[in-house]
Amino acid sequence: MTQYEAVIGLEVHVELKTNTKIFCNCTTAFGGEPNHHTCPVCLGLPGTLPVLNKKVVEYAVRAGLALNCEIAGFSKFDRKNYYYPDLPKNYQVSQFDLPIARRGYVEIEVAGQTKRIGIHHIHMEEDAGKLVHQGNIMTTPYSLVDYNRGGMPLIEIVSEPDIRSPEEARAYVEKLRAIIQYTGVSDCRMEEGSLRCDVNISVRPKGQQEFGTKTEIKNLNSFRALQRAAAYEMERQIKVLESGGKIIQETRTWDEDKGITVSMRSKEEAHDYRYFPDPDLVPVVLDQQWIEFIKDSLPELPDQRRRRYVEQYGLPEYDAGILTLTKEMSDYFEETIGYYDKPKVISNWMMGEMSRLLNLSGTDITACKIKPRQLAELIKLIDQGTISGKIAKVVFEEMFASGKDPATIVQEKGLVQISDEGAIASVVEEVIAANPKSVEDYKAGKEKAIGFLVGQVMKATKGKANPDMVNKLLREKLQ
User: Fold this and answer.
1) What contacts 69, CB < 8 A, 6 or more positions away?
2) What is the DSSP letter of 246?
3) DSSP secondary structure string for all residues of 259-296
4) Is 83 exposed, middle or buried (0-12, 13-18, 19+ CB in 10 A)?
5) Distance CA 64, CA 104 (A)
6) How far is it, in rounded angstroms, from Cα 252 to Cα 260?
7) Partner of 170 for a Cys bridge, out of 201, 209, 227, 412, CB 3.0 to 4.6 A?
8) Is 23 exposed, middle or buried (0-12, 13-18, 19+ CB in 10 A)?
């Protein structure tokens, strides 16, 4: 593995968050009864004519500008001709030689190193329908077709072959997803198919300039699947070459259960899609003033927001990077600061307990029952001495499960911190009397002994004693 490197290029399909499809008035709402979000236009019935949705063009320009692309003043739509059951017209309306945007880039960070990944172009196109397989794609006895997705507006972001490892591939798509989310043009929900990746990958001996023979892995819809599939395919190709074999140019699919890529069809020669300009659609001619207007309306993007978190809030680079990785997480952090102006404390809770529970439950922050106001109120209870930090974690778990306010949980469960010096002092005396060995160790200079005694007091008070007061009283009585 150390003697080879991967050459990876990614095609990322992003579903745009418009209310209607790209060429008709059908809804883009996710779900719905199969084949009910359709009309004669998106079903490709004879005699129908497409009309371009202006919002699709605006969103494509918006995404292109956010990804540092040059926006074309003149672009056109083409027909990409091929037969597949989910394509009712037997062609897909896409863009070929004159796409909406070109020559962009994003910057990623892997292992502490920043790297620029080029974007060759971005083009607009319509989505195909969805094949519903009765089991695994390779073994299904039959498949059903749902055309609800047909005609959904997409942009396809095609990278340069600048990616050299599965880790870089994942970082690139994570960065793309964050930028697109921040612009508001797509929700990028991979579990709903709003963002999907095709991976073109080859390997070559390090130092070699010539590319190796590539394979394409289709329709990866999670970061984990993307990284695992690229890693497996890289290893598979190296083994083939090391054994004296040749890589076959082909399309492969990822088997999540087995953790392997599987051959779908050979692709020895480039497929001739017989592109030609769509005669039913006029070219897209954009006014430079309109492009500038969209550029000026772009929101704060992830890199800008990350820098602000470091400069304005004094957060470490690592914290700022994690908090801005998704717009939802960053927006949650921003809203919480409005209720409690201690950014680092909020960051610690979000990156600690909140991330832990979100990971355990397999959800993201959009499904979190704890609202920013409630997180701020919980931290204030610690500041006020009402509860300890340890008790706060117990309260946080209950808030995460129930969505109740922290004060309500503290009251219901009797978790108010004991800050009465007299009450704590009596427990401290009992603990000192019951642990003469630890007392001797402390007096002999063993500082760790005090930690044990503090723990005994906290245990006796069921974690309710004010830990600072416990520490202070113990040291005073042991002098």
Assistant:
1) 101, 102, 103, 104, 119, 121, 122
2) -
3) TEEEEEEE-SS------EE-TTS--EE--HHHHHHHHH
4) exposed
5) 8
6) 10
7) 227
8) buried
Place of tokens 């897909």: 92
**How many helices (H) does the chain have, and how many strands (E)?**
16, 16
The one-letter amino acid code at 141 reads P
Q: What is the pLDDT of residues 284-341, one digit of tens each?
A: 999 999 999 999 999 999 999 999 999 999 999 999 999 999 999 999 999 999 999 9
The residue type at 233 = E
Which tokens hold the place of 430? 């009992």
Which two three-digit tokens encode residue 349? 């809770």
pLDDT digits (tens, 9 = 90+) for 79-127: 999 888 899 999 999 999 999 999 999 999 998 899 999 999 999 999 9
Taking a C-beta distance cutoff of 8 angstroms, is the pair 179, 153 a contact? no
359-379 core/surface letters (b: 16 or more CB in 10 A; e: else): eeeeeebeebebbbebbbbbb
Residue identified by tokens 């002098």 is 479
261-286 per-residue burial string, b: 16 or more CB within 10 A, e: under 16 = beeeeeeeeeeeeeeeebeebeebeb
The answer to whether 465 and 457 are in contact (CB under 8 A) is: yes
Residue with tokens 């029952």, as numbered in its chain: 369
Measuring CA to CA, how many Å separate 32 from each of 37, 71, 370, 432? Answer: 7, 35, 30, 68
User: Residue 298 to residues 157, 436, 451: CA-CA distances in angstroms?
Assistant: 19, 67, 53
Q: Identify the residue whose tokens are 């497409």.
A: 50
Q: What is the helix, strand, coil percentage profile of the chain, to 5?
A: 40, 20, 35
**What tokens does 249 get?**
């140019």
Distances (CA, A) of 324 to 176, 331, 450: 13, 9, 40
CA distance 9 to 202: 9
Q: How far apart, in Å, are the Cα atoms of 297 and each of 14, 159, 287?
A: 21, 25, 16
Domains, in order of start, for the chain: 4-290 (no CATH), 300-413 (no CATH), 421-478 (1.10.10.410)
